Amino acid sequence: MSLATLDTSQHPYLPESSSTLFSAKASQGLSFEQIAQHIGRNEVAAAAIFYGQAKASAEDIEKLSDLLGIDHELLKSQLSGFPDRGRTVEMPPKEPLIYRLYEIVQNYGYAYKAVLNEKFGDGIMSAISFSTKVEKETDADGNNWAVITLRGKWLPFSRF
Amino acid sequence: MSLATLDTSQHPYLPESSSTLFSAKASQGLSFEQIAQHIGRNEVAAAAIFYGQAKASAEDIEKLSDLLGIDHELLKSQLSGFPDRGRTVEMPPKEPLIYRLYEIVQNYGYAYKAVLNEKFGDGIMSAISFSTKVEKETDADGNNWAVITLRGKWLPFSRF
Amino acid sequence: MSLATLDTSQHPYLPESSSTLFSAKASQGLSFEQIAQHIGRNEVAAAAIFYGQAKASAEDIEKLSDLLGIDHELLKSQLSGFPDRGRTVEMPPKEPLIYRLYEIVQNYGYAYKAVLNEKFGDGIMSAISFSTKVEKETDADGNNWAVITLRGKWLPFSRF
Amino acid sequence: MSLATLDTSQHPYLPESSSTLFSAKASQGLSFEQIAQHIGRNEVAAAAIFYGQAKASAEDIEKLSDLLGIDHELLKSQLSGFPDRGRTVEMPPKEPLIYRLYEIVQNYGYAYKAVLNEKFGDGIMSAISFSTKVEKETDADGNNWAVITLRGKWLPFSRF
Amino acid sequence: MSLATLDTSQHPYLPESSSTLFSAKASQGLSFEQIAQHIGRNEVAAAAIFYGQAKASAEDIEKLSDLLGIDHELLKSQLSGFPDRGRTVEMPPKEPLIYRLYEIVQNYGYAYKAVLNEKFGDGIMSAISFSTKVEKETDADGNNWAVITLRGKWLPFSRF
Amino acid sequence: MSLATLDTSQHPYLPESSSTLFSAKASQGLSFEQIAQHIGRNEVAAAAIFYGQAKASAEDIEKLSDLLGIDHELLKSQLSGFPDRGRTVEMPPKEPLIYRLYEIVQNYGYAYKAVLNEKFGDGIMSAISFSTKVEKETDADGNNWAVITLRGKWLPFSRF
Amino acid sequence: MSLATLDTSQHPYLPESSSTLFSAKASQGLSFEQIAQHIGRNEVAAAAIFYGQAKASAEDIEKLSDLLGIDHELLKSQLSGFPDRGRTVEMPPKEPLIYRLYEIVQNYGYAYKAVLNEKFGDGIMSAISFSTKVEKETDADGNNWAVITLRGKWLPFSRF
Amino acid sequence: MSLATLDTSQHPYLPESSSTLFSAKASQGLSFEQIAQHIGRNEVAAAAIFYGQAKASAEDIEKLSDLLGIDHELLKSQLSGFPDRGRTVEMPPKEPLIYRLYEIVQNYGYAYKAVLNEKFGDGIMSAISFSTKVEKETDADGNNWAVITLRGKWLPFSRF
Amino acid sequence: MSLATLDTSQHPYLPESSSTLFSAKASQGLSFEQIAQHIGRNEVAAAAIFYGQAKASAEDIEKLSDLLGIDHELLKSQLSGFPDRGRTVEMPPKEPLIYRLYEIVQNYGYAYKAVLNEKFGDGIMSAISFSTKVEKETDADGNNWAVITLRGKWLPFSRF
Amino acid sequence: MSLATLDTSQHPYLPESSSTLFSAKASQGLSFEQIAQHIGRNEVAAAAIFYGQAKASAEDIEKLSDLLGIDHELLKSQLSGFPDRGRTVEMPPKEPLIYRLYEIVQNYGYAYKAVLNEKFGDGIMSAISFSTKVEKETDADGNNWAVITLRGKWLPFSRF
């Protein structure tokens, strides 16, 4: 199995922590599944920490530095701030895998809105009070299916 | 409960069928849940037909014209072609509900890619061999949560 | 005093209700302050209903049709759906007044983020669980000052 | 409590003073609230100085170099010019917290304009003769609310 | 001498008043110089009213309807609102004359900023407390020169 | 008085001469007014040379190297080519001072065109056979006003 | 030989005169070469008048209305204003023939600048004091070659 | 006479050969006219080689290395690949000289198309089977005129 | 089998001929394969005529009007001009099928260039002296494969 | 014959492996045809690996390091991750050869869609279950033709 790596020539605007974390991950040969299990978080969240898209708690930092063999103080200083989210993907995404997700929003956006509005009223599904996961299913014919679940708190528009 | 409607002043580039379907839906007072049940499809798919984003089969057209009281020939002629997808949402989406979905792709795009690649190898989750659904959950504190599931066939890049 | 009006030549993509409401407002000669008082909402919210950016409740619709002399059924049908927000302002805004607000976000965006993060932790100020108001102050030298207050619920990023 | 930090990999176009100031802030472990109190300015203004978005007076520079332990001459030379504002946020903002502010302008822009015009006449709220502040409120249920106040001088369009 | 006219096929998003005013101007055969003299305003301001970019006072409206032979009530209703500025020029401008002005900003923008900052300190030249005029000069060789003067109040950034 | 400086972190694409000139200006503590007087040019032109937006003559180079204490050969080699104009301002400008100039073009563009066409016929005001200056006025109430004059040769479109 | 025609469905923003002129051209079956000869102008200029990109003199209008059988007063009123140039081609051009011209500018732009600067000094080739023509050559092998000549006055940048 | 030079701070994405060639040109003090004569090519083509926009043949490389005193092997290795054209000019061009060429395409694009189609039929003027040259003319009044000739093979669309 | 149709609400900028041809195709119930056979052209070329992207010869027009039962004079007048290509697809394409083709160019663009350059030298594959076809293959497992062939004349860059 | 090379000044965002591979290819003097034969893949696929657009298998890496004389461990570590596709071509492509491919999509996109839909039903041609090849043909007149074949699995939209 190949592991996801980071080539900083291609992602020059990621935080320093990304390069620290990915290069440790590569030398330890660990998958996000293994990392996620170790820190007790979902593997999408674990990967999001690596890309500077999610905040690591003090405990996360400790466990990550242990598992990945990174100097604890270094990692702490690199991860102590608040994530500056949204810097990894250039929109519209050029990467084919990510584009497919974008296309789902483009094609089904108003259908989701219509169904959500009828089910919940006037509001939005939060992307902040939010979790997500990725699962793998294999059907009877041996085909693999990816299942991504998005779960967000429903926020009704305030009346004022 | 309010129903999703279509204001053609705001969506001048939708197909003619959208205005036929939405105005019949409004006069019949039907929700997408009711429509979906009648045609035996998921309600996101039903809404996608209304927005010209999914193809209606001959049977779907028949059932829709029955349920909604639309002349069968008219609906058939308006729905007989192939959907010209992607015309409903202007990207980046300005609509707050749809923007939240876009933001999820923007923030977690590379995290999804990393996790999917490690789980499945080099490829993409299809947005064509694909289904999706929306569910409503209410937690112990009475908060509502929207759950959107995306399920797509895994397509490995061909070796050539 | 002049009243805000709507020239539909300039805003062809607003919902039909906008033109109904604004033309009734013009013939009744009512300000948003008077309209807001009548429906018991903030005047920014009242104006937002006129621009199709906020949902009117059943009671709002009744009161608006009474005050503005609009046929109740007509207004109900035009306002019954869910607002399709974000269609009024082309970004970056060309309108000088709106541009100044945009410029505040552009110039102070990261300063707000830094201060909010330090005060509240990792999260966002909701624009949905949100209210806003506009006030007028006059200083000792007779200068007028506009005061806009934005009040949003703090949403911490979920840990997952 | 975490402190806001600066990762220059992510903000390569900020002025040199930003990196001087943020790295001193990190080693001193000071919040913007503490820094603002020390220099007698609002904490948003203090943060804006750090991001190169506001001018520091000679006294500000002196106080900042004292508090943060930065060589006075160095800081003076880095802060002596005029801010080149608008370089921190890429518009539309990808950062979720900043996007919410942008969305408020996008959704309520014309409502603000209509209300401001009716209250003040033809003109704009200045973003230059302007101040802003951030406050934290906690409601009876323990929810936190962020309150941002924008206060700008009203400038009527000149008649010529 | 030719007169400036308006072809509404080319400017579909101008306010209704633009087409009323320009077509009356054409049938009366009046120049902006003549119109400006009649209403006692600068000719750039007069033209800006015609393009919906400046507010006409009650007196302006009266004088314009007299001079141009437009029904007074009609003109009053079309000009009673607040201008929705910025809708005439698509940026970057494609029109060669307007592009030259844009190019001046593009080429000399930072030179103006440097000189203005050194002369006035940290602030901006207002485009609201602002007037402008166009003059024609002919040099000794018979060449014509256009002279555009921009005069705006200097607004220093507030300290807060 | 503060002097305009250059922070090359913020302007990485300026020519090498910009950094040579600005850093000498800073160490000599000279304003553009002083520099302009020394080389016998307008101060906007002087600043434009610093930003790589205007060509310095052989004499200008000599005088600049004398006044600023820059090695004559170095400055000559850095300024000997032809300016590659238009690289300083990103359009639309994010800098508030420069944006105000841009906004003037956006709002009054067609008004200028209409007035210029009626005064001069079909053509443009040259931005090449062109000069500009900045003046400071103070009114009776002590308010400062910036006056920018644009003077360009009128070029009629050739008949062919 | 086919003649160039105008399909107004595809060019909704051209001036009214374009549709008057092109439909008369089609019914008279005239080429631009014939039209140009009749009015004594180059055929590119003649076509530019048809697309609203060049001004027709009073004589041109008279000759065009004679040749094309258009009511003289109608044509005069439609062509009396000043061209609002730049509205025909969307940039980058999607039309393959026009794209090739655009590509020449994109590929050889700096080469032209370098050669022109060395030949003429610091300045530009005017696109206003400008004429152009199209010629057809056939080589010995029977291949056709299009030759486009651009001839513009050299304008040196003013020293100020 | 000044010579065209290259400031790599302003053109970071040009090929390495550009900087090799331009710096040799500067130290040899050669114009493109002289270089072109030496290699037996048009001076626009010579400049295009310098900007990485045209391929140098083996002989061109030899002659260039001789004339410019560049190590032959170095130049050969830097010029041996295939040009990656289109990277010099950012479109729309900000450089005033290049913008004028762009404006000619924008204004006369459809006029060229109409005239070319009527002269040659349905097809395009090739920008590949193409040559161009720049000439200088001086008229009786001593004005200089730049003449740019574009000559491309006519390619008819294939029938299939 | 469904037939491709045209919904003019979704394609307002196609030429008038598109709506004439598509509505006749729908009432005759003909596929592009049948139409192509009748006029003796490839079916992609036939469809391109319908979308205004290819020129129909006099014979094509005659055959199309016969087959589709369209008045010959009407069709001739609508198809007599030269196609204004490039107006059907908004780039980047939002339509999923067309996006896949775009993605192939985005992902393999430089690989094609490298291989073509090594095989043919410095030049391009013409998109004008060009033909294309679509074929259907079914593999042993019953999967369908689409095969698109692009065949263009190789044009070497001219030496000048 | 010239070989395709990589100038990293022009492609700063390619992965490190690109520069490793291209510089080895240059010193070995190998064409993509030779490389493709050695690793048993199509030459477009081989080139795509060089540009970071296709995944190399473990065997590919071994063979490439052998053929090109690259340290095996180095190449393995640089090629072990998953390609981050889409980063080579800036869209719309400025490179003339790649633009021609883009133009084919732009001009024939809807024609392909119509023909594919009629042949296969509602779905897309996969760009993932996909292969492509480039061939050279020489016609009777000695003209060279490039033939590019795109072969993708047909994916019907799922019914849900």
TrEMBL record, chains A, B, C, D, E, F, G, H, I, J:
A Pfam family of this chain: Cyanate_lyase
Record's keyword annotation contains Protease: no
Swiss-Prot/TrEMBL keywords: Lyase
Recorded catalytic activity of this chain's protein: cyanate + hydrogencarbonate + 3 H(+) = NH4(+) + 2 CO2
Catalytic residues (positions): R100, E103, S126
Family: Belongs to the MBF1 family. Belongs to the cyanase family.
Domain Cyanate lyase C-terminal: 87-160
EC class name: lyase
Organism: Penicillium diatomitis
Signal peptide: none
Role noted for this protein: Transcriptional coactivator that stimulates GCN4-dependent transcriptional activity by bridging the DNA-binding region of GCN4 and TBP (SPT15), thereby recruiting TBP to GCN4-bound promoters. Involved in induction of the ribosome quality control (RQC) pathway; a pathway that degrades nascent peptide chains during problematic translation. Required to prevent stalled ribosomes from frameshifting.
Enzyme Commission number(s) from the entry: 4.2.1.104
Keyword Lyase: yes
Gene: cyn1
An example molecular function term from Gene Ontology annotations: DNA binding
Protein name as catalogued: Cyanate hydratase
